[in-house]
Amino acid sequence: MLLAGKKVVVVGGSSGIGLATAELAKREGADVIIASRNADRLNAVAEKSGVKAIPADVTSDESVASLFRACGQIDHVVVTAAQLRTGPFKTVAMEDVRATMEGKFWGAWRVARSADIRPGGSLTLVSGFLSIRPRPNSAIVGAANGAIESLARSLALELAPVRVNAVSPGIIDTPIRAAMPEEARRDMLAKTAAGLPVGRVGVGEDIARQILAFMTIGFATGSIVYIDGGALIA
């Protein structure tokens, strides 16, 4: 098993890409801790998956610091937590754009500062392909993703020999889309799939496998990998 004897913390691990990463790391032998701010969902997922749960809110300095005090020294950290709010650039509320940066970018910043990662271990951040393929009504998300990727490259130098990388997903069918009406969600995903070379949208495990690669390939640092089904070339 690729992660036998390793301690892995997944911040945002109660659903979607984070949960898929936690489950994959567990299958590969890791001692896994998942963290998110929804304690009830977190505990239910942890019990089902056989991992440890620690509630944490990435928008709080003290909450993130407390999480990593409880974790002690670790081998690998993954940050998938995000609270995305967006809308038309001229009318989206400043409260919403600030919340997006607070949860996505500053959350990753807090985790990187607080985590005690062993030399040779890794920190993997999750951005998103809007960083380089923008869409209308999503400027703040693209900006946050671009900031995450820049942060990963900078930290690869500053935190060395800890390795720091980022994975940038395309359209992934995760619970973050559950707020959409089901028919609209299915229609959007089907239309997206039809326009991709691979003929489907992504699932959480597609991204989790790239995150696992970043954990286990000791020569990978400062890398940004786009996993988008070919969206950037379509």
UniProtKB/TrEMBL annotation:
SMART domains attached to this UniProt entry: PKS_KR
Listed GO MF terms: oxidoreductase activity
Protein family membership: Belongs to the short-chain dehydrogenases/reductases (SDR) family.
Protein name: SDR family oxidoreductase
NCBIfam families found in the cross-reference section: PRK07041.1
Every Ketoreductase domain range: 6-174
A Pfam entry, by short name: adh_short_C2
UniProt keyword annotations, A-Z: Oxidoreductase
UniProt keyword annotation of Heme present: no
Taxonomic superkingdom: Bacteria
InterPro entries: KR_dom, NAD(P)-bd_dom_sf, SDR_DHRS6-like, SDR_fam
